[in-house]
Amino acid sequence: MIDFYSDTKTRPSRSMREAMLDAPVGDEQKGEDPTTAALEARVADMLGKEAAVFLPSGTLCNEIALRVWLKPGETLIGDRACHIITSEGGAPAALAGAMVHPLDSADGVLDPEAVRGAISPASRYASATRLVCVEQTFNLKGGVVWPVDQLDAVAAIAHGAGLATHMDGARLMNAVVASGAGAAQHAAGYDSVWIDFTKGLGAPVGAVLAGSRGFIEEAWRLKQQMGGAMRQSGVIAAMCSFALDHNVERLAEDHELARNLAVRLADLPNIASITRPQTNLIFMDIAQAGPTAAAVVEFCRQRGVQIGAFGARRIRLVTHLDVGPADLDPLYAALAAGLHQS
Ligand SMILES: Cc1ncc(COP(=O)(O)O)c(C=O)c1O
Fold first, then answer.
1. SS3 category, 191
2. Which CATH class is domain 11-246?
């Protein structure tokens, strides 16, 4: 199967697996795993934060951060299409008791003035707004990169109003490579931020959440409480360190592949619109006269090509470590034939 469904589909390479073999390990819950500790220190430094904690998934990073920042009944602001609001099973409500104030935007990059307008006035009646969440890059709008000055502008408004700021950095390293600005620059205005190792970085498990020492202390308490504390996690942390050593700069290849793919897709029949990829994600909308996204996905699957349906007429394609230029022809052929169906 040629898999353009998601960058989460990458499989750890042989050399990444070999990185586990000699990794020193210990009991992570007790702070005795040197490989995990080294990864946490490295990511904290890279993101310009005091401390960091290793977690099994990006979702847990988001949800622990929400629980640190919000008491039940308090509100977070985020784009309506962000992962925290759309794709975490209602966890902000279920786990943090959070209210959500969703904002609309064209591309996932929030207008600072819209953020200002969404902050509730201090009132006994209103839910208190406590947190602004951003997503870098923005998944469901096509891997859009927030410009650093826009990140800073939103953070300044949030902090000016006494709110905390959180960055979902599932694909922050894609933004770093695409923009040329360092990870710490992107994260400078954000009180909590995390990166995921299981997207374009190609590791099988792991994410690291960073922030101040006090934030991480509280995050650790919640990690323990929610069952996220581990034992000899150095074996997986070693693969994450390997990913930082070997798989960051090469994200540029994924971005180039996505750009080349988008150019070819413009020739396809029954396409209403295609996003212009800034990183590794492409969304395309099928015209009303064409088949449904589900029908195209199934047609391609039967021809050995996996792609994603994100809505009745919306298809997502993602480039990553395990697809390359040679996979474009079979993808294009399957899509061209699939889109001709009615
Ligand atoms: C923007 C974004 N945030 C969070 C996540 C959750 O990450 P994980 O799959 O590691 O829980 C994803 C996963 O696809 C994502 O795309």
1. coil
2. alpha beta
Residues 19-35 pLDDT 10s: 999 999 999 999 999 99
pLDDT of residue 134: 98
State the fold for domain 250-340: Aspartate Aminotransferase, domain 1 (3.90.1150)
According to the model, what pLDDT value does residue 105 have? Answer: 97
Q: Kindly state if the Cβ of 83 falls inside 6 Å of ligand 1.
A: yes
Instruction: Give the distance (Å) from ligand 1 centre to CA of residue 194.
Output: 11
Instruction: Look at the chain and count its residues.
Output: 342
Ligand 1 pocket test: pick from 199, 205, 209 the residue with the most ligand atoms within 8 Å of its Cβ.
Answer: 199
Report residue 19 as tokens.
């990185």
Domain ranges of the chain: 11-246, 250-340
Determine the pLDDT at residue 250. 98
Is 266 exposed, middle or buried, given 0-12, 13-18 or 19+ CB atoms closer than 10 A? exposed
Q: Where are the alpha helices (DSSP H) in the chain?
A: 14-18, 34-47, 58-69, 83-86, 91-96, 112-118, 148-160, 172-179, 183-187, 213-225, 234-246, 251-265, 293-302, 328-340
> In terms of Cα–Cα distance, which of 140, 240, 257 is closest to 199?
240
Ligand 1 and 170: CB distance under 6 A: yes
Query: Does the pLDDT value for residue 341 go beyond 80?
Result: no
pLDDT > 70? residue 169: yes
What pLDDT digit, counting tens, does each position of 223-238 carry? Answer: 999 999 999 999 999 9
Yes or no: say if 196 and 205 are a contact pair by the CB < 8 Å rule: no
Residue 34 Cα to ligand 1 middle (Å): 26
What are the Cα distances from residue 239, in Å, to 247, 277, 278?
A: 11, 28, 27
pTM for the structure as a whole: 0.98
Measured CA to CA, the distance from residue 112 to residue 78 in angstroms comes to 12
Q: Would you state the pLDDT for residue 342?
A: 58
Tokens 């009180």 found at: 191
For the CA of 88, the closest atom of ligand 1 is 6
